[in-house]
Amino acid sequence: MDMPVPLHHYLILSGILFSVGVVGVLTRRNAIVVYMCIELMLNSVNLTLIAFSRQLGDLNGQLFTFMVMAVAAAEAAVGLGIIIALFRNRQSVDVDDVNLLKG
Amino acid sequence: MQLLIFYGFGFLALFSGIAMIMSRQPVTSALLMILNMFCLAGLYAQLGAHLIAALQVMVYAGAIMVLVLFVIMFLNLREKAGIVSKHGVMTQAVGIAVLGFVITAMVSKLDMAKLPAAKAPAADFGSVVAIGRVLFTDYLLPFEITSVLLLAAIVGAVVLAKRKV
Amino acid sequence: MVIVPPSIDLAAVGPELILTGAASLLLLVGVFLKEQSRFLNPWIALLGVILAAGCASSSLFPHTTFQGMYAADLFTRFFKLLFLLGTGMTILISIKYTADEQIEHAEYYALLLFATIGMMLMAAASDLVTVFLGIETLSLSLYVLAGYTRTRLVSNEASLKYFLLGGFATGFLLYGIALIYGSTGHTNLAKIAYAVSHGNLNTGLLTIGALLLLVGLGFKVAAVPFHQWTPDVYQGAPIPVTAFMSAGPKAAVLAVMIRVFEQSIAFMNVDWTVWITILAILTMTVGNIAALVQSDAKRMLAFSSISHAGYAMVGMAAASREGSSAVLYYMLVYTFMNIGAFGILALVARQNEQRTAMRDFTGFAYKNPALAFIMTILVFSLAGIPPMAGFMAKFYIFMSAIKAGQNFLVLAAVLNSAIGIYYYLRFAIYMYMKEDEAPSTLPPLRASLGLILALVISLYGVIRLGVLPAEYLDFAGKALLTF
Questions:
Q1: Residues of A with CB below 8 A from B164's CB?
Q2: Would you say residue A78 lies in a domain?
Q3: Is there a domain that residue A76 lies in?
Q4: Which of A1, A61, B147, C99 fits as disulfide partner to A49, beta carbons 3.0 to 4.6 Å?
């Protein structure tokens, strides 16, 4: 085995991926793409958890990732249900019509 | 060697992530997302999380993204004009500010000396046995909560998507 | 290989088990029951809530169980009873509404119960895993409930908006948890507290983690500037669901905040009360000013619920045991008064929620004097006018903040209360002072049995807690001693 990759490499990668997800959520207009950007954010968090888990030699991080995956699956089911219900009524999944960030 | 694997998967993950938020077609986005998840699975395996890496491929890339792809094709979604939402300039500025903030905060606040020191993991670190043992003892309650959560999600999805309840 | 069996205390999670059972029963009954007997659904749910409340108030084991994942203490018990109260009242005001809108399904009530289970787990969580799963159980149920009237486009849109921004917030919350885990090495709150006070930690990571966690929780409690989803979601959701969302879930998030910030990472060398203070001032002010200009009663109540979360955060900013117990008391009072007010709104709005504007309350006092009188008491309480409970709740919050030396914060809160009095009194003005111009052709409004029961509970709470608050305050105070 050669030198392991230093921890901060993983942290910076996941930080950047998280930010990419944030930008996607804030800028895209297709609800499904916005949803995928949220998944990207969750994935980058999983990477952070697993990197720390390896560093600390502690399984809690991996177990947490396990739970995040279960929740992501549940969110996918509900989210796509919501999108289908909306599509039935409006024939579009454009978030501009929903005015996502207007108070 | 390890570093090479990291950079290979890392750059591919980054590329697919950025390409995902920039691509015009939702289907392309979804496929890029799957690529991204595969890369992350590779990194998980490198970090000793073998079970999680397998689950990442099976659950995330396999089940969740297939469901997403199915819905995209089912609804026949296509971007008509412009992928960027109209609420535009303001939120984009916020988004880029957040991006800058997180990256700079991560890099500048990383006091390398105080990051947790690497510990040698146990021999069966991240194996099915090791994870299973913790999951059914320490994580028994969260495991059971997950079952309630999934039941609620199933009920919710059925209620919303069914034509007539 | 030896596996040590985990500590399992089923009695501690009794209320959750009963609610899960009731929800499963509802789902099963929903399959076999004929359409005519759907009226049974709310009563089954209510029975579950009452049994769970009985279980919550009888069993008490001041300890953590399930390997430190679940804290069974007085704090948990206080919140469990508060959530069950909110859920019970929501079910009562839902009965007529769901019948009118033809959504009287078993699933609606089952989802309310699932949401309640999520809230209970949040209040009982002594580990960030349980916090996360509780929040998600609650949120997923609420996303669906917000969109439950599927044929109304506003309801669909509310649901989508809530889902996307809720998922976004979950991302921040999780990132915060991940960084806290990384810097302390634990997800258990007690162990985090120990690591924070004893260890030589990476404070940068911990601070960013705590900040991101606060952003995530801020989204869920609708604190300004993370409140953008609130007005539209509250307006689009069915009225009983809005009533439900405005009380219990906010209390649950505040419970998590108290446990995490005041108990766990309180010893961090960054002054987190400054963050809460800023959030509290923004939340109160923006919520109140936006409520001031609304002409729609439902939207007005939505904005005002934002400002109420702000008042509760004033108590958190005091960062004292007194302040936290004032928060508990405040949320209890708020549950009593707000769900009652929404119940009357649901009645006035009529079918399909067509009449939710303030002017639809015109002349209400002449047609339904009793209901108008109750509504007046409730809005007086919401505005914080003595001798109603709303006044006492605000009073204790402000006192605790003054004792903590947060004079500026209290000044802001008092000014905000003055704005609140103005817009809440508009209800009374519309009901009593204005004549109905055109003689209405609409059928007269009649309160259903469920609404009457809910209003009786609500009135009892508002007057009892306003006149004789000592017993409940004592309970709230003791709840914080058993951490």
A1: none
A2: yes
A3: yes
A4: A61
